[in-house]
Amino acid sequence: MSGRPKQARSVARLAAVQALYQMEVSGLGVEAVIREFADHRFDRQVEADDSGIMAEADEAFFGDLVRGVVANQRAIDTSVVKRLAQGWRLERLDATVRAILRAGTFELSHRKEIPIEVTIDEYVELAKSFFDGPEPGFVNGALDGVAQDVRA
Fold first, then answer.
1. Which end of the chain has less Cβ packing within 10 Å, N or C?
2. Residue 8 pLDDT > 80, yes or no?
3. What is the DSSP letter of 146?
4. 22 vs 25, 101, 145, CA distance in Å?
5. Rounded CA gap, 89 and 130, in Å?
6. CA-angle at 84, arms to 83 and 90, nearest 5°
7. Residue 26: per-residue pLDDT
């Protein structure tokens, strides 16, 4: 895969995490949030890579991730909870961490053409963009465990 499509998927993953977070805190439905991103955010949501080339989000991949998480949320949450420390509930996690884990778990479970290492690395990097503390390591460990469970 060339750098541009890869970057477009990275931007789509970031947008998916933001959309899942927005849905959780606002109560908006999946199609309303996807439409809002398509109408108001993607034209401005670009990131430059090291060469300064701007990449747009892969909107189809974004929609697949967000819709997939919502459609499979019960199974996704079960997979994530299985990898939490004993006695921890999903609700105790930060909403952004929940969104990252849900998107990553969906991708590991349903986008098996994407290598495990790529998926985990992408979501760990997203966690690093939001958090300075232990959260990226937690995301790494949790998604690694989910990958062992769903791709065994």
1. C
2. yes
3. H
4. 5, 15, 26
5. 21
6. 115
7. 92
Per-residue DSSP letter, 40? I
Q: Which SS3 state, helix, strand or coil, does residue 57 take?
A: coil
Over residues 36-76, the pLDDT tens digits come to 988 877 755 445 445 443 457 899 999 999 999 999 999 99
DSSP 3-state assignment of 42? coil
Contact (CB, 8 A) for 107 and 10: no
**The two structure tokens encoding residue 70:** 């919502």
> Is the pTM higher than 0.85?
yes
Q: 125: burial class by Cβ within 10 Å (0-12, 13-18, 19+)?
A: middle
3-state secondary structure of 54: strand
Residue 85 confidence (pLDDT) above 60: yes
**Of 98, 104, 115, which Cα lies nearest the Cα of 143?**
104
Owner of token pair 């420390």:
85
Domain 3-150 sits in CATH at 1.10.940.10
Dihedral of the CA atoms 13, 18, 29, 90 (nearest 10)?
A: 90
CB atoms within 10 A of CB 138: 21
